[in-house]
Amino acid sequence: MADSFKIDFQPHGTVGTGDLIVFVDENLKPTPAVAEQIGPKAVDLIARAAATESFKGKAKTSLTIPAPTVLDADRLVVIGVGGEKDRASMDWAQLGGLVAGKAAGKSATAVLDLPGIEVTPDAVADMVLGVHLRRYSFDRYKTKKDDSKPNGAAKLSFSVADPAAMKKVQKAREGVAAGVIIARDLVNEPPNVLGPKEFAARAEALTKLGVEVEILDEKAMQKLGMRALLGVGQGSVRGSRVAIMRWNGGKAGDQPIAFIGKGVVFDSGGISIKPGGGMEDMKGDMAGAACVVGLMHALASRKARANVVGAIGLVENMPDGNAQRPGDIVTTMSGQTIEIINTDAEGRLVLADVLWYVQDRFKPKFMIDLATLTGAILVALAQEYAGLFSNNDELAQRLTAAGQATGERVWRMPLGPEFDKMIESKFADMKNTGGRHGGSSTAAALLQRFVNDVPWAHLDIAGTAMGSPQSEINKGWSSGWGVRLLDRLVCDHYEA
């Protein structure tokens, strides 16, 4: 959210210069109130231009009329909201992103009176969130900026029925937008810049918002017995870390809720080294940890009325003479042993120790972990859904509902004794991979052995968090996936 960019709210009735953005349905007519505001000649102009450009008013389509002589505006931008079905399932954040993408002049005014849709303060706040996310770019390492790319309007005004009400609700969304952007920045950073120590320092910055942050170094982890996590990082010259973040916004003594993130800052695969093609993308193997940091920022910014623990395991998986080998057996903090079959199945080793630590120390109401864990989840769900594994139906249902509400969708995948059997080891309590078949479920089965009876969900975000699909609110490589989903989950069910 650049400092030079400004969003404001104004009452209906003002039509100035710059871009004027209005909305129509499939009948190509704005609402009567908007029609009165822009005048019958402008309404007729929309109809004539639509016929020329074959614009049908379908959802997520637009028509731009430059220099409309019947208005003071420099351009008239008409955005379609579609038919009744489209309007019933309106994604307001995506609509806000579309508005930001079409506002190309120095200033723009969007008249938020939409045909067939009630425009609530929450809807407007989500649109503003979408605007901020659409404008995001990661170009801090470019010495020459691309001047051919339009930066969009420097000022975007929303014409609304009650500006004061909109401002009040929108304030809370600013922290969520900032949280998503923090997560995106972390995932996009090059791995030479963002090692475990540097990542932990980014987490420590949350203390400015009142978050308590504790960093465990390798000596502290050795003392705790986190040998699975430490084994992953032992081939790197950069020491591993665990960052524990606590936001105490709920009642004193209430059980916290907990979010755990995989933070492999770079994953070469270790001794089981990955192919060279595309390995540069493995800087994003810490997207789960990035989400947790962004989420904690969002919750603290809006002063969420909940006690929340965020924990991230930060390691680098490298192949040097000290790296762990296939065939090694490590003892986890829980005392359970794991045979290493493939050193590239390392994220579950990191999470095993952090999950155990969190459930043992904090006794949380539930735990949710996020990890770019398996390529197998991409085979199953492409980049459309994150894989959801859970030992608790209520938690799974609430996550699914939050995913539908935010557009960060999850799909429940199977857990069961069959997958446990696939990770049985001849030499240890378990092995760290069950082979090609059911790879996402066997990885989740291993994690489940470290949660005891705590309600738990595992989100495999390998397909959604990096190399993310392009949308109206994401034009970059990292989407910051999960921050909005989990903020919505907390807001809907876990605040006092």
TrEMBL record:
It is an enzyme of class 3 (hydrolase). Mn(2+) 2 binds at residues 262, 267, 285, 346. Mn(2+) 1 binds at residues 267, 344, 346. GO terms for cellular component: cytoplasm. CDD domains: Peptidase_M17. Keywords: Aminopeptidase, Cytoplasm, Hydrolase, Manganese, Metal-binding, Protease. It catalyses: Release of an N-terminal amino acid, preferentially leucine, but not glutamic or aspartic acids; Release of an N-terminal amino acid, Xaa-|-Yaa-, in which Xaa is preferably Leu, but may be other amino acids including Pro although not Arg or Lys, and Yaa may be Pro. Amino acid amides and methyl esters are also readily hydrolyzed, but rates on arylamides are exceedingly low. Its cofactor is Mn(2+). The keyword Hydrolase applies. The active site is at residues 274, 348. It is found in: Cytoplasm. Its EC number is 3.4.11.1, 3.4.11.10. GO terms for biological process: proteolysis. One of its GO terms (molecular function) is manganese ion binding. HAMAP family: Cytosol_peptidase_M17. Belongs to the peptidase M17 family. This is Probable cytosol aminopeptidase. It comes from Microvirga subterranea.
